[in-house]
Amino acid sequence: MLNFFIQEGAEDAAQLEPEVTEKTLSIMELIVNGGTGGMIIIGTLAVLLFVALYVYFERLFAIKAASKYDANFMNQIKDNVSSGNLQGAKVLCAGQNTPVSRLTEKGISRIGSPLEDINTAIENAGRLEVYKLEKNVSVLATIAGAAPMIGFLGTVIGMVLAFHQLATSSGQAEMGLLAEGIYTAMTTTVAGLIVGIIAYMGYNHLVVKTDKVVHQMEATAVDFLDLLNEPA
Hints:
The chain is mainly alpha-helical. The chain has one domain. The protein is 83% helix and 0% strand. The longest helix is centred in the C-terminal third of the chain and has 55 residues, at 175-229. It is rod-shaped and about 90 Å long. Residues 97-218 form the MotA/TolQ/ExbB proton channel domain. InterPro entries: ExbB/TolQ_transport, MotA_ExbB_proton_chnl. Its main location: membrane.
């Protein structure tokens, strides 16, 4: 009999306990619940992410094409220049169509001028090639710095609106709604950091790739000038 009452009491207690349901949120719900300001901020960050990815991949393919280098290229140039076949050397450079070959072609076109003039012409051509390689890369650096600040701006706006709701309700605002507004506002900071990190990593990767091409051009320029300095 005692066991019966104990079992019945446990069943009654179990019925009185509220069911605990786990609340989940999707990314779309967070964006929609963020209000007009939050949606504008998220939309802006989405545009910046698209621009960052476009610039990164466009520059990556361009730099990869520019970094192609034939190890036998300078040997062929040396043979043509040594034999006096400057036109053949120019044709060889035109066939390569890379920054290295364009620098070499610029130097070949100035053969006969003082060595200092040839060096200056190669340096000027090198600056133009570096400018072409770095085209729009600064956009990634700008996005890397601006995206987190834009996300933080969205969070600040959301916090101001949440506390404004608390102030206008004379301190009687429902804590659930207040907390929901706060964590929804925080999503803009998360989105801004994600976009900023992606842009920052892409920018640094392109800088490393560009530096390799620049070093390759410098080495080729030195080899070409050494070739002109060789005794006949």
